[in-house]
Amino acid sequence: MKKAYVICRDTQTKGYIQFILTFEQKEYYLFTTKYRHSTYNHFKNGILLDKALNFSKIYYDSAIENVTERIYKLIPFIEKEYSISVRRKSRRIKIITQNTYRAELAS
């Protein structure tokens, strides 16, 4: 199974960091936000997307919580824009819709 990672990188602009989604050896830009030490340390080495979206691992840090919410909201947009299915849930939906489409053609 192919794994998606969320990586945080320092930008050339002082005080800002970028968030990037890596999937199938390609990088997809998510967003840029102000630098927070806790957020940078949490994401700097890359985290699996499933772990990044797990709200129980945030440890009550509002900066990480805000970033996690933004990532959660942007994933469906990235999937639609680049025609990829990153999360397991979206893969299941894609398979179900393909099966129903085939069933309609057979009728």
Structure description:
The protein has 107 residues and is of the alpha+beta class. Helix content is 48%, strand content 24%. It contains 4 helices and 4 strands, in the order βββαβααα. Strands 3-2-1-4 form a 4-stranded antiparallel beta sheet. A hairpin with a 5-residue loop joins strand 1 (4-10) and strand 2 (16-23). It is globular, with a radius of gyration of 16 Å.
Q: What's a concise summary of this model?
A:
With about 110 residues, this protein is α+β, with helices and mostly antiparallel strands. About 50% of the residues lie in helices and about 25% in strands.
Query: In percent, how helical is the residue content?
Result: 40-55%
Shape annotation: globular
What's the SSE pattern? Answer: EEEHEHHH
How much is the radius of gyration in Å? 16 Å
Number of helices: 4
Distance between the termini: 33 Å
| Weakly predicted, low-confidence segments | 103-107
**Would you report the number of β strands?**
4
Averaged pLDDT: 81
**Strand arrangement across the biggest beta sheet:** 3-2-1-4
Structural class: alpha+beta
Strand content: 15-25%
Biggest beta sheet attributes: 4 strands, antiparallel
Topology, element by element:
Layout: E1 4-10, E2 16-23, E3 26-34, H1 37-43, E4 47-48, H2 49-52, H3 62-82, H4 88-106
Can you give keywords for this protein?
disordered C terminus; 107 residues; alpha+beta; single chain
